[in-house]
Amino acid sequence: MPAAELPGGAPDRERALAALRNFIASTSDAIFGCDFPFSLPNALLRAKTWPDFLARFDHVSAEAFRKHCCNLTGGKEPKRKTDEESKTPWSAFNIRLHHQTYHGLAGLLRPLVRQDMANVLPMQKPRQGLAWIIETCPASTLKYLHWRGSYKNTGLGSQRQAILALLRDQAGLQALPSSIERIVLENAGGDALDSIIAALATAAALAQIDAGDRSGDRLEGRVYFRVRDADGGP
User: pTM for the complete prediction?
Assistant: First the structure.
């Protein structure tokens, strides 16, 4: 469901983020996959640890955040190592993505980490009794499954339906209730489908983490994008 429909939620960003924070903090036996960059390239962090970077993430706006990064890079948009590996579409402060990065870090992760209400992996060690949060990227997952083509627009319901079939065949997606499938097919923006893709990648990540996988950069983070393949492996 949209964050605006969570208890205490509303369509405006501030209340939606507050509702999402409360939901995460109150669900201590869960793992959450979020589709926005959790960090920056090492050269831009200027911090010894990721929690230090997050604590100092005090830009006054998304525009100020992007300007700060562009000033440091001379206008270039370098990616993290994990972005290269997972083939994410853009740099964390790209013009198309900087709002999501800024609000995700400032409005979601920073308050949760500062108040010790969640663990963000792999930058922090997973602890029992706290929700775990990982970075996902539905676009990267679809590339991993060799899907090409757009599915985010009016009139592309057939493409969204084809992606659901692909997820059932190659990622272990179970049959959806008809009401949920209808929402996914009719949601032209693709957000409903993206949430399902992210959930599958998060489930696969949980299996890896439970098996002892702690890979990923403790500063730059890690994009968890793989899902179960056709042979049943993670």
Answer: 0.94
